[in-house]
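Aggregate trends can hide what the representation actually does to any particular protein. This step matters because it turns folding into a mapping between discrete strings. For completeness, the protein is quoted in full, as a sequence line and a line of structure tokens:
=====
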Amino acid sequence: MAYRSKTRKIAYKFEILIDYDGGERKDRRYTAYSKELAGCSVRAGTEAKAVRRTKTAIGAWICTAKRAIAYDTRGIADAISSEIYD
């Protein structure tokens, strides 16, 4: 008897908010974040980079949250930071 296993992908949609700090020329930065995911924010020099980095951060946040729920005892924020910056 053969068994079949199906894997289904689930699409998530998160709103990305972008703030612009228009201070001194050398300090101009974009901050992008998702309100739905605590601690999921990035900074970048351009809006496009901020969006791209936020997408990566959201993926890391979800992966880390799944792992934390399953067996990890670290705090979510610490685990996400290590996932993004390692």
